[in-house]
Design brief:
Layout: E1 9-17, H1 23-33, E2 37-49, E3 52-58, H2 61-72, E4 79-82, H3 88-100, E5 106-108, H4 125-133, E6 137-140, H5 144-151, H6 158-170, E7 175-178, E8 188-194, E9 199-205, H7 215-228, H8 233-249, H9 265-270
Parallel strand pairs: 1-2, 1-4, 4-5, 5-6, 6-7
Antiparallel strand pairs: 2-3, 7-8, 8-9
Bound molecules: adenosine-5'-triphosphate and 4-amino-5-hydroxymethyl-2-methylpyrimidine (HMH).
4-amino-5-hydroxymethyl-2-methylpyrimidine binds at residues 14-17, 22-23, 46, 48, 83-84, 111, 114, 120, 214, 216-217.
Enzyme class: transferase
Domain Pyridoxamine kinase/Phosphomethylpyrimidine kinase: 17-262
Catalytic activity: 4-amino-5-hydroxymethyl-2-methylpyrimidine + ATP = 4-amino-2-methyl-5-(phosphooxymethyl)pyrimidine + ADP + H(+); 4-amino-2-methyl-5-(phosphooxymethyl)pyrimidine + ATP = 4-amino-2-methyl-5-(diphosphooxymethyl)pyrimidine + ADP
């Protein structure tokens, strides 16, 4: 028998997107492309495609806990990302179990609304997100509407976005990335990063495309993959940003609505296949 190869392991706790562009599917594709072993705990199944969300069907709380316990008893993740957590109760149970198992390197993507406007997290869940999940986050990655909902700050200027980042740091997150996909529509997208000491922006060319389904999921999964490798959050953020930028830039023709990003692109470019 050959010698077994050691691999880093990443876990996503999120919803399924039947269309394959966001949620668990985006996360596992990203883990695979970045060379980490991917595992998944489903919170809900969505009936979804590139035109929108047609239905949301939660897994039972018992089912959620059983999946987490199965992983804990056999496969300690080197990093975790949370995505669509469905409701306050699911957030509380997930947070409790992450603490109980002492899992580290947690990326919290506080998914609330799908790009088409479908609600993926109830209003009551905001409280649980603020009181249970943010404290576990090595990195939290809200988009602008999520940062507004979590902080109560209307983000209509760069200063307001900085203020929101501070509030999220004070609430317990180690690193805050307020993503800029929804911020203005100029030639550039800027994501704001705050680690409690430094505030800096990651600036990239804005790609003019409607195919941005799953950008947030993909970015946070790339962060988890990078943390699983043992990278420091600041390098993880820079590398994950390169992954998502490449995936948006080399768009693929899938579906008639807001298409998914290209999860292969980063690896193909590394192998000079594009
Ligand atoms: N048109 C674009 N061109 C370049 N980068 C983009 C574009 N849109 C989003 N991004 C980047 O993609 C990442 C995800 O940001 P975004 O604000 O779209 O997240 P999101 O709203 O949570 O995504 P989703 O809910 O679809 O998963 C960020 O790093 C952001 O800067
Ligand atoms: C399952 C799922 N998670 C997250 C998002 C956010 O993009 C989505 N559209 N679907």
């Amino acid at each position: 028998m050959g010698q077994l190869i050691k691999v880093s392991k990443a876990l996503t706790i999120a919803g399924s997107d039947s269309g394959g562009g966001a949620g668990i599917q985006a996360d596992l594709k990203t883990f695979q492309e970045l060379g980490v072993y991917g595992m998944s705990v489903l919170t809900a199944v969505t009936a979804q495609n590139t035109t929108g969300v047609q239905g949301v069907f939660p897994v039972s709380i018992e089912g959620l806990e059983a999946q987490l316990a199965s992983i804990a008893s056999d496969l300690t993740p080197d990093a975790i990302k949370t995505g669509m957590l469905f409701s306050g109760e699911y957030i509380e149970r997930t947070a409790y179990m992450i603490r109980k198992f002492a899992w580290e390197n947690v990326v919290v993507d506080p998914v609330m609304v799908a790009k088409g406007g479908a609600t993926l997290l109830g209003e009551e869940a905001l409280h649980a997100m603020k009181t249970c999940m943010l404290q576990l986050a090595k990195i939290v990655t809200p988009n602008i509407p999520e940062a507004e909902a979590l902080t109560g700050i209307e983000i209509n200027s760069p200063e307001a976005r900085e203020e929101a980042a501070r509030v999220l740091f004070d609430a317990g997150a180690d690193h805050v990335v307020v993503k800029g996909g929804h911020f203005g529509n100029g030639d550039f997208v800027t994501d704001l990063v705050f680690n409690g000491i430094e505030m800096f922006e990651l600036i990239e060319k804005r790609i003019q495309t409607k195919n941005t389904h799953g950008t947030g999921c993909t970015f946070s999964a790339a962060l988890a993959a990078e943390l699983a490798y043992g990278r420091k959050p600041e390098s993880a953020i820079v590398n994950a940003k390169k992954y998502i930028q490449t995936a948006i830039e080399h768009g693929i023709d899938v579906g008639s609505g807001h298409g998914p990003v290209n999860h292969f692109a980063y690896r193909r470019i590394a192998h000079e296949q594009y």
